Amino acid sequence: MSAHYFIGLMSGTSADGIEACLVSFEHQDMQLVGRYTHPLPHAQTLTLLNHQPQIDLMQLAQLERDLGEAFALAALKIMQQQGLTAHQITALGSHGHTLFHAPKQGISLQIGHPAIIAKRTGITTYADFRVDDMALGGQGAPLAPLLHQAWLHSKAIQQAWMVNIGGIANLSLISPDTPLQGWDTGPGNSLMDEICQRYFNCRYDAQGELAAQATPNEAWLQALLSDPYFAKPPPKSAGRDYFNQAWLQARLPASAWQTPFELLSTLNELTAITLANTLNKVFAPVIICGGGSLNRTLLTRLQHKLGTQKVMTTEHYHTDPLAIEGMLCAWLAQQAWLGKPVDLTGVTGSSKACILGGCWQGN
Question: At what angle do helices 43-51 and 57-82 cross, to 10 degrees?
Fold first, then answer.
């Protein structure tokens, strides 16, 4: 059996670009061939909508179309980068950009229409992955544990924590002794990114250098940690429609915004604590992916809280930490193309395994 190429497209809650990943699959082997980041149109609008969800129908329709065009262009660019044509790609998987996620109501909206992607690229496109899970009573997220499990198995790793630190942080426990587990732990990078953009004239805290310049405020930490989400048992998922600036302002005194270094350091510590509170429950290696894998201050604090549990990134296994979510979308497309149901019952709370996503023909 020769290798099949799949493309995965992902725009995360940080609204910092579209990740396009080219992945080859052969038997049980899964290899990242290449990654490309494409600018996200209307990124500022999307960031605002993530914590102030007000939009008219014309604006929504325009975003749906414009993002579809951008996702398609990202796919075309990575094919060009790797010297491939549409005929050499078996299928494409697109997550779209999450505009609204309300699991209690069974609603999750991703935009960037797959029909536009399929017709512009000429590649069969699988998308709208969350809806099937939610139709079976699941939360529709996180989906990342599915890829975490498949990736670890491809590396012959039997047990580990996989931690994705994107705008929201999520983790997965992969173990031969228990079914797949995973959930969103709370804020990842998104709150820190917003503080950087507001006070430091930068998109994010590169390597955590800004957060390292202050000590976390213990009183502020306790106020944030008192939110019932953190004590809630899984299944659970969240987005920037929940963890946003309004959430911060409701819990912190006005003085917090007068000392932005201290505020940023406190948010960095919040992410580390909410991850460590779970990771400490099962002793296993901790493998980090996502944009947070570049934040040295965050990883150092997390390692300190975990003691002898080894913290590393997917780079240790020769896989780009920024590619994991794009690889997820390629893997979901491959599973749907094969007609294989995936089991999220232990992650999202759905009632049974199912094939995720709809299919749009490329011709």
Answer: 130
